[in-house]
Design brief:
By secondary structure, the protein is an alpha/beta fold. The protein is built from twelve helices and 14 strands. Helices cover 34% and strands 16% of the residues. Helix 1 links the parallel strand 1 and strand 2.
Amino acid sequence: MATRSPDAAQPPRVGLVSAHTCPLAQPGTGDGGGLNVTLDALARGLASRGVEVEVFTRADEAHPAGSQLAPQGGYRVHHLSAGPPQAAKDDLASHLCAFAFGLAQHPAANQLEVLHTHYWMAGWVGRRLRRRLSAPWVHTFHTLAATKNATLAPGDAPEPPLRLIAERRIAGDADLVVCASPGERDGVRRHLGAPSSRGRIVPPGVDTSVFYPPGAAGSPEAAALPFDPAEGPLLLFAGRLQPLKGPDIAVRTLAAIAEHEGPRPARPARLVVVGGASGNGVGATDPSRLRSLAAELGLADRVAVRDALPHGQLAELYRAARAVIVPSRTESFGLVALEAQACGTPVVAADVDGLRHAVGPGAGALVGEHDPRAFAAALPRATRGPRLSTA
């Protein structure tokens, strides 16, 4: 396909590709997370600037094959048939050829001016199609296999060799690699051999019309709080429930706090966990296992596990919380930490690349080890001052 000639009467056309998850999926459940939020926000932002945005993703049980306009988004999403709709993420690599074929044949892929792939699976497809589509190819990794393998949670399985090889080839061939932080760009250079000149840092952001401090102008959505913040400090964990994200560390952090509080605290700390089981979290850090862990630690009445929430309701929880715990083993950019800070809530986060970049000075505390007692010890330091100001 040839790139179309510039035409002032015709808007530019950009193709965004996410092979393994749809930007319309609820973040915090299944494979939906920061990538989904970022992709949706990018597509909306480009569309609002007059760009014609085509998003290509795989059809699954929630999103059957076909095309649809994103609700209030101004962009189109094309769900391509590639393997069984119910296929698990770990099995999708064997269906990438079918996805690439479907994308190459799709009418909306004709005359794209930029192809922007997200995550290594989409990058594999982009590398395969870059010459056929005749468009500059931009890639965003979101996470790197080498970084994940170096920071595995106990019992977690390493990323497969196929991904390691694919990421090196993607980094070597893409016209541009977009990174969320200096740490990610350094990782792309160190682990994948890509020159620093090929990487561009585009820090993530949040929608401040949704995520804003208490008392700021806005129209908050009602969030059913499982605990009354007036009766004791409310702590929050938000994200996909898998060992990588450390929701079990958040529960054990509350146990360390409870041990310090004594048997009958006047204002006991409580924890709300928001999210759904993801990948290898089933049976390890899923809702039932986290509730069982809380019961084993004597905290059944002080831990509430809730399904993932729409952004407006999640923002209300951020504003109600005294602190947000982000104990991830690795993060490319730490979107939860950014959302919490935008809501005026301090963050106690693991001292890893993405979070190190996301947690601003005076916005909380970074913890250098994945030890619940270390997180518990950092909380007083993070919350001793007034709520954060985002002015």
